[in-house]
């Protein structure tokens, strides 16, 4: 079981890093009009263990397997928001938080953005698929 958790932690951490690179790379499209077509991405080493913590979702995935995707994704989004908030507050305390949402309209303490709920909903379902091997496919 410990080996499975470590394996899932590494897979979720790497998957999260890749998702973040893709997301921040796409967000650099805003610079496209300024003739910057590099689509550079940005992440932090801190993000690997934060995304890796998605491995903790495995037992929750099992408990939710008979629920519809709307419920499962909602639960995952809430848990991701909770994790993002806690890790953001801790990292901010030490001046190490790699993200700052304080200029966004729907932010809480600058560490979470409520308008990211659909992103975290889908990310949670993706992590579920990784952790449960597709057992809980969208119903």
How would you summarize the topology of this molecule?
Elements: H1 2-27, H2 47-52, H3 58-63, H4 69-93, E1 107-108, E2 112-113, H5 117-132
Antiparallel strand pairs: 1-2
Helix pairs in contact: 4-5
Descriptive account of the structure:
The structure is a single chain. This protein is mainly α and 139 residues long. It has one domain. It has helices spanning 2-27, 47-52, 58-63, 69-93, 117-132; strands at residues 107-108, 112-113. A two-stranded antiparallel ribbon has the order 1-2. Strand 1 (107-108) and strand 2 form a beta hairpin. Helix 4 packs across helix 5. It is globular and about 50 Å long. The model has no long low-confidence stretch (mean pLDDT 91).
The total of beta strands comes to 2
Q: What's the alpha carbon Rg, rounded to whole Å? A: 16 Å
Characterize the largest beta sheet: strand count, sense, and whether it forms a barrel.
2 strands, antiparallel
Query: Can you list the strand order of the major beta sheet?
Result: 1-2
Number of helices: 5
Mean pLDDT: 91
- Which of globular, elongated, flat, extended, rod-shaped describes the shape? globular
**Helix-strand topology string:** HHHHEEH
Strand content: under 5%
Distance between the termini: 28 Å
The percent of residues in helical segments reads 55-70%
Structural class: mainly alpha
Total domains, how many?
A: 1
Q: Stretches where pLDDT falls below 50 for ≥5 residues?
A: none
